[in-house]
Please model this.
Amino acid sequence: MANIKSAKKRILVIDKKTEVNKSRKSEIKTYIKKFEAALTEGNYDKAKELLKVCEKKLYQAAAKNTIHKNAASRKVSRLALRLNKVA
Model:
């Protein structure tokens, strides 16, 4: 455990940021799972809507440095490819 006041504060700040990042990543994964479920069911309209939501969430996470911007772009691209193959 840190002894210096500023180090103690940094630990608290890091813990808060870690929770926010975990929440963001979990939300993204949930939307991706919903998108994949819609694809397997054959519900293409719902899948299109979910793709828009996934794209927005991924780019927001990249803007906040939760994930790398290239990783966000790659995931969006792969999701769009899957939708285009099926539709």
User: Anything to note?
Assistant: The two ends are 55 Å apart (CA to CA). The domain at 27-86 is CATH 1.20.58.110 (Methane Monooxygenase Hydroxylase; Chain G, domain 1). The chain has a mean pLDDT of 96.
